[in-house]
Amino acid sequence: LLREIARNLLGPFRFALQIATNKRHRAKSLEVLRDRDRAMGSFADPEVTLAGFLVQGRAIPDRKPHVFLSAGETSGEMHAAQLMDACQVQGLDARYTAFGGDLLKERGADVRFPLSARAIMGLFGVFAAVPWILRAYYRWLKVLRDDPPDLVVLMDNPGLHVVMALEARRHRIPVVHYVAPQYWAWGPWRMQRYRHAVDACLTILPFETAFFRAAKVPAHYIGHPLLDELERERPDPKAVAAVRAERTLVILPGSRSKEIRVNLPGQLRVVQELRETEPELRAVVVHRDPKREALIREVMTGAQVPDGAPSDRPLNHGVEVAIGPIGQWLAGAHLVLAKSGTGSLEASLHGTPTLVVYQTDGAFSQWIFRNSVTVPFIGAANLIAGREIVPEFIFADPARWGDVAAAARKLWQPGEDRAVCLENLSHMRRELGHGGASGKAAAILARFFRVAGSCTGRHP
Fold first, then answer.
1. Across-strand partners of 286?
2. Taking the CA of residue 289 as centre, how many other CA atoms within 13 Å lie in the half-sphere pointing to its CB?
3. Would the CA dihedral through 319, 324, 330, 331 be positive or negative?
4. How far apart are CA 149 and CA 94, in angstroms?
5. Residue 97: what are its φ and ψ, rounded to 5°?
6. Rounded Cα distance, 447 and 460, in Å
7. Among candidate residues 402, 271, 239, 423, the one with its CA nearest the CA of residue 335
8. Residues 387-411: pLDDT tens digits?
9. In this predicted model, what pLDDT tens digit does every residue of 63-108 receive, in sequence order?
10. Which of 387, 331, 365, 382 is nearest to 263 (CA)?
11. Are 441 and 83 in contact (CB under 8 A)?
């Protein structure tokens, strides 16, 4: 605990050092992203890329292998549950203990701590959750002492998981991190510690492996879980056609309350400006979470027209709200205006022209953001492509929404800009490869335990 407190107290000094070296890190990141040969090397055989990890494995004939899974939030638990299902398909009959929730319990895991029941966000959120984190870590020490697993698999959430991984390796237990942390985007100094924490990391974006291997972290690309979600949740073609028939602008305001409050008013201004040339434009704010509907409607009601902007209508005039599955909206939209995040990648994978926007809540926040991010893009589609294929904007000044509207006009109208964007999105989708992330991860675990007939996870 004292060691972790000391590390966090050194945070401001590390950040100051990063500011001094940020330009160099960004240049190196751009070089990696543009080196497509290295990126495509991500599709190599795990027998080669993870050789040091796999050689530690062994068959356990006298009992079931004991696998420990940990998921610190809802999405991580979903990945863990899918991994358990895929392991069964691979013939890996294991005993699972876990930190997680009901999804893992339903699949027979012995859940020792409800880690996924509480999402922890931001520095203040970490401090408020210190008692909770200490209880989780105490339970982890008890697992290692009383019922040590043969393999530890940690899902995303690097904060606590890296500390847990270090303790597991002190007990000589191999550690796999599924959904590798985005240290390549922020805090590259963390790579050295991460190298000592894990035996292997499984990445969900093809370019990530080059970053981790450069830091001597064994890494293997298994595909993005979103590809599997899109395959499982294919929208009704009739619903997609209905959205497409009305030339719809779809708005993704973000998942968190603060993101919605900061970004949605500006997104509504873009709708208003587009309607100056296309008055009948259909605009829909979509969100998966029913708990966010009241906030979305509250923000829409209170959104104000900027001073000096001519308008005889409120910003929310004629803008719809749709809560629930969003696949039909993203697949059928004429254009998507998305706050940066997974939603923007999902829209891009549907082949829909997309604008990625992130308005910070002030000039200081923007300065922090600019100096902490070490990659040249924030949109996942642009990172995968290694260049800007969908327009992206990061700003604090609300006046910059005018630039967003100008870019939206170019992609809304038929022409070269829209045609090039569509072509680039198609190419980016092919670069991600095929789905089956859970199956490929399970094949690697089965190989670790020398399960007869297990595949190696090779893929084109």
1. 322
2. 14
3. negative
4. 11
5. -110, 160
6. 19
7. 271
8. 899 999 999 999 999 999 999 999 9
9. 999 999 999 888 889 999 999 999 999 999 999 999 999 999 999 9
10. 365
11. yes
